[in-house]
Amino acid sequence: DGGITQSPKYLFRKEGQNVTLSCEQNLNHDAMYWYRQDPGQGLRLIYYSQIVNDFQKGDIAEGYSVSREKKESFPLTVTSAQKNPTAFYLCASSIGHNTGELFFGEGSRLTVL
Amino acid sequence: AQKITQTQPGMFVQEKEAVTLDCTYDTSDPSYGLFWYKQPSSGEMIFLIYQGSYDQQNATEGRYSLNFQKARKSANLVISASQLGDSAMYFCAMREAYSLSAGGTSYGKLTFGQGTILTVHP
Question: B30: cis peptide before it, omega within 30°?
């Protein structure tokens, strides 16, 4: 089945450690996105990529890094520079960056101990 | 700047009844798209319905309809005949739209509201 797969679903990390969240899609979509969701809040855009080997910062990119070496993959690294990394992270894709609907994965919940 | 406001943190509805989830928006752009997403407890975001700012009729998708009042800048979601499986968080979102010289439409960033938790009682 076509879709977006995020892993791991749950992740625990000690302070000062980097952690990488995986996002893979088999929808043949060009654009991919990473959002952060905190309790009681909507989604905020971290990074997005319109094509392979290209990506742009969203609203809250500080403390995060991404890569887009393959069309299907858009991993997000939460670095130790992110001051409050505990959150729910959602990956999404769309046919193009300039099309309306986004398709989402099931999310990864990161907890910093 | 775009802004989406959902004023209802939580809503309750009896099974088989209709419910309206409120959404107001603020934009200076005349062209935009409005979206509703459902987020069940599993966490994934499920696209429900879309309304373009120039659409003459309110969008409908099965039991979902969007009550679009452009002058009031509101885009309320109406769920008819509520089911227990409708219990979830619901998000309103907006993207500004731009007409391309070659035809078609291009969209900007998707901005989300705070969400409304809907609970359906049996």
Answer: no
Encode pLDDT of B60-90 as tens digits: 999 999 999 999 999 999 999 999 999 999 9
A and B: number of Cβ contacts within 8 A: 53
Work out the average pLDDT over B84-102.
Answer: 86
Residues of chain B with Cβ-Cβ distance to A38 below 8 Å are: none
CB B65 within 8 A of CB A16: no
The answer to whether A84 contacts chain B (CB < 8 Å) is no
What's the rounded Cα separation, in Å, for the pair B86 and B90?
10
For B43-68, write each residue's pLDDT tens digit: 889 999 999 888 889 999 999 999 99
Contact A42 B35 (CB under 8 A): no
**Three-state DSSP class for residue B84:** helix
